[in-house]
Amino acid sequence: MSELLHLGPLAEDALEAAADFHARLLPSIEMTLLGGADPLTLVFLPAGSDHRAWRLAAVQGLARRFAPSRLNAVESDDAKAIAATQSWLAEAGGVTGQMLSLDGNGAPGVLYPAQ
After folding, report:
1. Burial call 50-72: b when 16+ CB within 10 Å, e when fewer
2. Is-contact 51 82, C-beta < 8 A?
3. Spatial CB neighbours of 37, under 8 Å, sequence gap ≥ 6
4. Separation CA 76–CA 87 (nearest Å)
5. Contact, 106 vs 112, CB < 8 A?
6. Among the four residues 72, 103, 113, 115, which has the most C-beta atoms within 10 Å?
7. Are the beta carbons of 14 and 48 closer than 8 angstroms?
8. In angstroms, rounded to a whole number, what is the distance separating the alpha carbons of residues 65 and 74?
9. What is the model's pLDDT at position 106?
């Protein structure tokens, strides 16, 4: 079953945000994965580009540690874009360890069903 785990808000400072993530949020992410969440999509709120490296490293490390379970992350505050990406990731069996920045514009008719 595909699951979403919303993370945040985190500090604006990248070092503070990374420290908070590892100290406070990482244990619950690991427990969710051990509980059978597959695939799991982490949802980060948008942040400055200085957050990209630590977020990607955390996602890739978790994906390696918990393989063959799949874990990916998105950066967005757009519920519709997050839901569409979660649906796509659920069907994309070879995609894991990825960080996707969503802008909410998507690909009409591909990610977003026709109205």
Report:
1. ebeebbeebbbebbeebeebbbb
2. no
3. 1, 3, 5, 69
4. 15
5. yes
6. 72
7. yes
8. 19
9. 59
Collect all residues with Cβ–Cβ distance below 8 Å to 53 and sequence separation of at least 6.
none
Residue 51: predicted pLDDT: 97
Q: Give the pLDDT confidence score for residue 114 in this predicted structure.
A: 47
Eight-class DSSP state of 44: E
In residues, how long is the chain? Answer: 115
The amino acid that residue 86 corresponds to is Q
Instruction: Check residue 8 and give its pLDDT.
Output: 86
Q: What is the token pair recorded at 113?
A: 């069903």
CA-based max dimension of the chain = 43
Angle at 102 between CA 12 and CA 35, to 5 degrees: 80
